[in-house]
Hints:
single chain, 158 residues, Immunoglobulin-like, four-stranded antiparallel sheet, 3% helix, C2_domain_sf, C2_dom, C2 domain-containing protein
Amino acid sequence: MSKSLEITILSAEDLRVNEKSIKKNAFVTLKTDASSAMRTTKMDVDGGNYPTWNEKVIMDVPLHASFITLEVNYKAMMGINSVGISRIRISDILGGYVSQNQVQFLSYRLWDRKVKRNEVINFSVRVKMPVISLAKELLPAAKNSSNAVVTGIPVNWI
């Protein structure tokens, strides 16, 4: 069993690596601790150190998952480098009373590999409602069923 979450990666603020601003090609990867499945946004080629994505990602999150990891990366000439990571506890999203289809806007601090605070990522989360399909045709439970009224006594009364 899992919950389906619609996560919209909105933007990030003041992205830096070693005190230097990120110029371009930033993107975000999303994954849970309970699954190896990973989702990735498109690269923001001109956002600089304030990139915007406004990209929706649908994630099926297993019920035993503890957190979702958002990692901001950028593509440089020497390969892909990490800007920072943020771990969002599932209880922050699903805890308390949050009705389905209600959108929550969240901002989380990014942490670099040296465990130093490093900027902010902005995103929204919505718990998607399951789609319920109705049977096209109702079939009787048995071939010899009738329209007669049946009464019963609960077992624990006997």
